[in-house]
C-alpha cells in the first residue's frame, strides 16, 4: 500500500501519513526532552521510525529567516540523512510552496492557512507543524497521482519536480 508522508522538521516536528485515498493514517507532533544533541537525535529517530521504504515523502525545505537556524538545520539534515541511508527518496517543498499549494498564496499567515486547509480538505489539528505536514503529504500524493486540483497546485508540483538549474561558471 502506497503511503504519502509529509514532514515539517522543527523542535516540534510535524508528521502526517496519508493512505492512497488521502485518508489520514497518522498525524503527530514529535518532540523530545533533554539536552542537545540527545534531544535532536531522539526527534530524528522518532520521526524516521514513522517512514517506511516505498513511502512517497515530501519534507519542508529550510526556512532561511529562522532565528534557530542551526538547531532546525541539524534536525532537518538529520532526518534527510536518515532517509538517505535507508534509501528512502524524498522531495523538498519550500515553505512558500507549501502555503501556495494550500491557499494559492505563498505568503499566507499561519492562522489563515489553518482555515484554508480546513476548507479544502476538512483537516484540522492544534499544531501548525502537523497542519504543514498534512499539506506536505497532500503534495506527495499529488506528485504521485499527477498534478493538483488547481492551477496554483500544479505550478507548485512543477516547481518541486523541475531539475535544478545549474549556474554557469564565469570565465
Topology of this structure?
Layout: E1 4-8, E2 13-18, E3 24-30, H1 38-48, E4 56-60, H2 69-85, E5 90-93, H3 95-103, H4 110-121, H5 128-145, H6 151-161
Parallel strand pairs: 1-4, 4-5
Antiparallel strand pairs: 1-2, 2-3
Helix pairs in contact: 1-2, 3-5, 3-6
Total beta strands:
5
N-C termini distance = 51 Å
What overall geometry do the principal axes of the alpha carbons give?
globular
| Class of secondary structure makeup | alpha/beta
Along the chain, the helix and strand elements come as: EEEHEHEHHHH
Main sheet properties:
5 strands, mixed
Uncertain stretches: none
Give an overview of the whole structure:
Helix 3 crosses helix 5 and helix 3 runs antiparallel to helix 6. With 171 residues, this protein is of the alpha/beta class. It starts with a strand and ends in a 10-residue tail after the last helix. The chain has a five-stranded mixed beta sheet with strand order 3-2-1-4-5, sandwiched between helices.
